[in-house]
Amino acid sequence: MFTVTLIPGDGIGPEVVEAAVRVVEATRVPIRWERFEAGTEVMNKYGTPLPDEVFNSVLKNRVALKGPITTPIGTGYSSPNVALRKRLNLFANVRPAKNLPGVKTRYEGVDLVVIRENSEDLYSGLEHIVVPGVVESLKIITERASLRIARFAFEYAVKHGRKKVTAVHKANIMKLSDGLFLECCRRVARDYPQVEYEELIVDNTCMQLVTRPERFDVMVMENLYGDIVSDLCAGLVGGLGLTPSANVGEDGIVVYEAVHGSAPDIAGQNLANPIALILCAAMMLEDLGETSAAERVRLGVYRVLSEGKVRTRDLGGSATTTEVTDAIIAAMEV
Ligand code: NAI
Question: At residue 119, does pLDDT exceed 70?
Answer without folding.
Answer: yes
